[in-house]
Amino acid sequence: xxxxxxxxTSVASAxxxxxxxxxxxxxxxxxxVAVSAPGKRSGDDIKVTDLLINLAMxxxxxxxxxxxxxxxxxxxMAIADGLELDYTIxxxxxxxxxxxxxxxxxxxxxxxxxxxxxxEDNNAKLIATYFNSIGMPARYVSPKDGLVVNDLPExxxxxxxxxxxxxxxxxxxxxxxxxxxxxxxxxxxxxTFDRGGSDITGSILAAAVEAELYENFTDVDCVFSANPKVVxxxxxxKEITYREMRELSYAGFSxxxxxxxxxVYKIGVPVNIKNTNNxxxxxxxxxxxxxxxxxxxxGISADSGFSTLYVSKYLMNREVGFGRKLLQILExxxxxxxxxxxxxxxxxVIMRSNQITLENEExxxxxxxxxxxxxxxxxxxxxxMIVIVGEGMRNNTGLAARAATAISKTGANIEMxxxxxxxxSLVFGVLQEFENQILQALYGEFFAHVRV
Length: 452
Description:
- The chain is built from 14 helices and 17 strands.
- The chain is of the alpha/beta class.
- It has an eight-stranded mixed β-sheet with strand order 3-4-2-1-7-11-12-10, with helices on both faces. A five-stranded antiparallel β-sheet has the order 14-13-15-17-16. Strands 5-6 form a two-stranded antiparallel ribbon.
- The longest helix has 17 residues, at about 65-80.
């Protein structure tokens, strides 16, 4: 059995959904299809998820929601028209949206989650209807029928019983069309995964049914060794390990959600990233292990939007529990951290800037200064993380020096260096204004004149 997931651009229009049907039909092993909400049809278009957020905001403000609701319905009607479906399915979608906007607003986060999830949920219903209309027996399955997730306040993840609940899908005779992006708590409350979380849903399904392959269809032929919007004609990656892909996804590789690898990684289901618009292209395979080539670096990625909490205290290294107390302050503010480079008398905690507000920044600085008696405490913003990834790095002498030299030629200062214990990645913290220059310089250092 093959589980395949189709992203937003792959299901953005009737024409794209027809391509999806042809892909699924071409291989009888493709029995489970996870789908996103309709994405952009062109560069200046708006994703259905964003339209649904507008609808949720209008409802929360007690504004007239009719116009916002009809915009969403019209998007689905346009798809139904193109697929020559009658409007019964559109009436179902409109009724579903009205029920959602009339739902409980006491918890704004959960209310918005419910509205956002309507994109994936209703698109799955529409696609299942279309499959049946062209003689492909299909059945819509709701996440409520097994994809059990945790309660607030932690970020959403599938509970162990979700895999057992979904396992019987492996015996299906029909094509299962399953909406991505969300699940339900044991109490029946809808919760969404992070944005782009349809990848996670597909991975959960693949692990649950122990699929032979998880295909992730998107709008590119493969994963590239660097961002093609920054680097001209980057090398294609034909095969990559779970660890390498996880590191690259963490730092800006938007082709595959960085949390989506965990379910398939645990049981060793390979992943193939393919292009809906060019399904014959081999794509990029993500595997547990691969042969290490003579090229130590597999890919280079960059992501901006990081902040640094810098703390200095003389003889910090001799104070038992200092690090724990510092991280406890961040935990109290519900803030996760990315890296903690340190010296004898100072430590920096790198975190995502979107977790920081003026209010919690003031509380953090005050608590660190007063409770930990720190000599100096600063919060700095505007950093990027540049990540160099490769299974062959551990056996390659002088790689860090080559990278640092390439960065120095851009005129940028390296604010932080961190190498993971697995030695698969090397992370440089820099001011985000230098991000693209550094990415280009590093690509030139490790990939110049390389074509595979």
